[in-house]
Design a protein that fits this description.
binds nicotinamide-adenine-dinucleotide, about 15% strand, alpha/beta, about 425 residues, five-stranded mixed β-sheet, seven-stranded mixed β-sheet, about 45% helix, 14 helices
Amino acid sequence: MSKENLNLFKIAQSQLDKAAEILGLEEPVRLFLREPMREFIFTIPLKMDDGSTRIFKGYRVQYNNARGPTKGGLRWHPDETIDTVRALAAWMTWKTAVVDIPLGGAKGGITCNPKELSLTERERLARGYMRAFARILGVTKDVPAPDVYTTPQIMAWMMDEYEAILGQSHPGVITGKPLPLGGSEGRMDATARGGLYVTREACRELGIAPKGTAVAIQGFGNAGQFAATLGVEMLGFKVIAVSDSRGGIINTNGFDVGALVAYKNRTGAVSGFPGSNPISNENLLELDVEVLFPSALENTITGENARKIRAKIVCELANGPTTPEADSILFKNGVFVIPDFLANAGGVTVSYFEQVQNTYNYYWQLDEVHRQLDLRMTKAFKDVFKIHKARELDMRTSAYLISVDRVATACRLRGWV
Ligand code: NAD
């Protein structure tokens, strides 16, 4: 039985420590980068539809803003804790740095189960969060976006509340908005699309022909569904297994992904899709596929199951799916891991494009968004791959070397450390 510490923030700190040692980072810089610069916790009362009042905890961690205003998603999940938010905020800092956009990293969330809330309760909770946090948000301060169980509609309510507080238009306060309210073309599928651009590059480097290649996807929300659809459309992948929180399904001939997405949207789950057999989330991870996309939550590949992973490429669309112990096992076994803060950076990159378009109030065509996203993701992949090859390090550590160096340089130039 492995005795790994699965606290996400401890994991994020240990990854940083490893990179700091290789970089020979000065001790004050390492200590500064190990901790968030600012954290906020607010108590949010919510009037329920039945007239009762429930109390929720809301978080925002602004990890580091040396390279620009902070940016990061909002997660509504029953297991949300301040340490989860800290870790995700740290990874946002390394993410904006690896794709070299002029932003820092932040993250936020509410400990809640949105599945138990009505639409009107969700709206009041979104507005309550914004009333509590408005003072620390804004395009020059910190800009939230969607993450697990938050949607463009939730972003719209929050933007509306912020504008009501300010008494002026300020669409850039939040990204991932619906298109009619200043959202960007291409934001909905940006996380998966960015992941597929880097997977395409990885296949090229590893000599894998993507057409007809079997892939498995854990999690079938924003990241997972678009990974399936675009994986087929852009690279010709054969999606043989998918799962969500209620379980997984497999069909070794490959799914009709359009029909599967429609089925999931109609029934709320992938289970029972015609022509499929059930598979557990655990077994899905261990399938003999070329590419595995963990696209659900953290700590799914651990010291317990890493030896059983047979995929050639693991493209981490989820944040934090692989523990440090699993990382070293995968590296030893020759599994090529595209680390989360590179693999899923497409989301924040198009969120950044959205912020830019909101600020100059002029909107791009979809093909321009795709072109710019491809350029940034491909360049970031090549930068990281170069270090991976030259220094014989795993891809995660290689990505850390670039990001930590960029953030540390900004901190030094500001005279902070
Ligand atoms: P989402 O809420 O749209 O979907 C989450 C999916 O995961 C759902 O299908 C849910 O059923 C499934 N799931 C939950 N628990 C599961 C479990 N135990 N086993 C299998 N499936 C499970 O969320 P999302 O936006 O797709 O985010 C998924 C991951 O991608 C998260 O780690 C998130 O932080 C990361 N991410 C998302 C974005 C984005 O733009 N949406 C950007 C970067 C990273």
